[in-house]
Amino acid sequence: MTVLEVVPAPDGGSYLLADGVVQSHVDLEHPTRIAIPYVRDLADLVDALPPGPANVLHLGGAGCTLARYTAATRPGSHNVVVDSDKRLPRLLARHLPIPPDTLELHTLPAQTYLRRTRTVFDLIVIDLFTGPTPVPIDLELAASRLTRTGLLAHHLYAPHTGHTIAVTPAPRGQAGPPLAGAAAGEAERT
Asked: What is the DSSP string of 71-137?
């Protein structure tokens, strides 16, 4: 079983580690401070969305850094975080508490959540790994949960190329509304 721990970071924030490998950096006092470069790239995508609250699905939670960032920079946003590790809510509550009304956290496989939800999202972030290996995900199913103007951002990692963010717009002819916003997230919470 993977060992999860939270340790202090030199900058005053905290690192969430899985088997000694950094998964997240969280600054509870300054949620807009992003210390990991690829997460900064994802935060730039959040910033590039149309103004106002956003409906964001985070597949892979760890310390919920991006969801915290979205809540801080886009008040009223609806953040759904899905992570299959059932220990995560307790770990976060104990070491990296999440302010009320910041996000909803589901502990189940991402694929299961995608099959069950009918909610559409302005941005879906896929950041799923088992160790250094990406977790397979049905990208077509994920894309079907986007608004017409939504974006799918997939974090990829390979030792020879490093971190990459692949961004895909919603497929043409997508059935969702132009922008879901926070109100659409109220329709269904599984």
From this structure: HHHSTT-EEEEE-S-TTHHHHHHHHSPPPTTS-EEE-S-HHHHHHH----EEEEEE--EETTEEPP-
